[in-house]
Amino acid sequence: MRVARRVLLGAGLAAATAAATGCGGRPATPRGATPAVPSAASTGASPPASATPAGPAVTPADLAFTPGRTLRPATGPPPYADRVLDRVRRYLAPTPEIPGHQGYPGAVVLVAVDGEVTVHAAVGEAVRYGAGPVLLPAAGRVPMRTDSIFDIASITKVFTALLVLREVDRGRVDVAAPVARYLPDFRGAGKADVTVGMLLAHTSGLPIGAGDDAREDPDQVSGRTTAAARRAAVLATPLLAGAVPGRVFRYSSVGLMVLAHLLETLDGRPLDDLVRTGLTGPLGLRDTGFRPTAWPARPDRLVATDARSSRGLLRGVVHDQVAHAAGGVAGHAGLFSTAADLAVVGQLLLNGGEYGGTRLLGEATVRRMLTNANVGLPAIDAERPGRSSTHGLGVELAQPWFMGRLAAPLTFGHTGFTGTELLVEPNRRLVLVLLTNRAHPNWSWAAPDPPRVAVADALAEALPGA
């Protein structure tokens, strides 16, 4: 397996890369090592499928939204709670599909059905290792809590997409319009044909990261480059050789970086301010935002990621090195959140764009967001060669590699490289949030997908679809 790199390099800008670009991908195998092939059968998990699951020809037009639903505690534990927690606890130790190490030191899982939070539990440890990595003594470790704050990595992309779609609702952005209409500096061969929708659906032809492999330390880079230089480097990123916009699905973090700059240009404010005033504030998400070390949050709520980086132990500091070089705020990564806050985002979309009396998106825009924008297109993904191109505007659709047997034409969500996941299955009125610290202390130790599939399968077994 080749290392998928997240890089930002150009016009004097370079950011060291540490991992696969935050699509929540499998960890890269160290050079010279043989990649392990997980056995789904060993855990009862569904094997990944190479195409969208067969089923009735349902579309987002068939969705019955339920405005007014807000998350509330269930009256009692459901019969499937123990089954779900057993699946989550299994990966606190090595398993046949992750034999060398535990799947993660700790996790938080939240399940909501029709607005009722039926499962919300924490297992394991938020901090288990110190820099090095060095296994900490028991007294020095930090237990996981249900309100622990995680680096959600590429789930940040969902927030960026929601902000773009709010501008679509307002008539300020056209999904079918060329990106260059809003960002004249988005220039280069073939880039005049790249639309806003292509960036949201990952068919622009842009690479995963901007530029070539980076060699420099991001702390040094961010200290000697300006925000303007970093912005220019992103907008100058060329399309991949031979790429034709709109023809092939290739996951690209650069596309969401470009959209963040579009939003900032359109509104004249930085992305963190736009997220706060446009999404987290109206939704009451008090534990979601960039750069959490500046929040009035207790330190014991912050979950650790890498413990052997050049930056030492990462806790409350973004893992993605490109986002770090950009000061911790980027369109593709950088947000921190809790399971409860992310569940609100899932319920918002189940409600058709409204939550708690606040409408953030029109129902028609939500349906458009959840419509496959890539019908008939091939997919290229070196990390998951069997995946399909099925994708909405900012969300994954019908992907068994992380949705397991919950994958269906209308199932949507997103994953994050650090071990995070938001999954929504409208047929069951289900919101699933699974947050793990599988990148602690070393992201290459454990693949993130087996636990995702195992938990999804447990819910698919327990909650028959309509």
Please describe what this structure looks like:
It is a single chain. With 466 residues, the protein is an alpha+beta fold. It is built from 12 helices and 17 strands. The longest helix is centred in the middle third of the chain and has 15 residues, at 253-267. The chain starts with 7 loop residues before the first strand and ends with a helix.
Extract low-pLDDT stretches: 1-22, 24-55, 211-224
Q: What is the assigned CATH homologous superfamily of the domain at 87-172 and 270-462?
A: DD-peptidase/beta-lactamase superfamily
What does the average pLDDT come to? 87
What is the helix fraction of residues, given as a range?
10-25%
**Structural classification:** alpha+beta
- SSE string, helices as H and strands as E: EEEHEEEEEEHHHHHHEHEHEEHEHEEEH
The total of beta strands comes to 17
Distance between the termini: 39 Å
CATH uppermost class of the domain at 87-172 and 270-462: Alpha Beta
The biggest sheet amounts to: 8 strands, mixed
* Fraction in beta strands: 5-15%
Radius of gyration: 20 Å
DSSP helix count? 12
Under CATH, the topology of the domain at 87-172 and 270-462 is which? Beta-lactamase
CATH architectural label of the domain at 87-172 and 270-462: 3-Layer(aba) Sandwich
Quick one: overall form?
A: globular
Supply database-style keywords.
12 helices; eight-stranded mixed β-sheet; three-stranded antiparallel β-sheet; disordered N terminus; globular; alpha+beta
What's the arrangement of secondary structure elements?
Layout: E1 8-10, E2 13-15, E3 72-73, H1 81-90, E4 106-113, E5 116-127, E6 129-130, E7 134-135, E8 142-143, E9 150-151, H2 156-169, H3 196-201, H4 218-224, H5 227-235, H6 253-267, H7 271-283, E10 289-290, H8 321-325, E11 335-337, H9 339-350, E12 354-355, E13 358-359, H10 363-369, E14 396-397, H11 400-403, E15 412-416, E16 420-425, E17 430-436, H12 449-462
Parallel strand pairs: 3-5
Antiparallel strand pairs: 1-2, 4-5, 4-17, 5-8, 6-7, 9-11, 10-11, 12-13, 14-15, 15-16, 16-17
Helix pairs in contact: 1-12, 2-6, 2-7
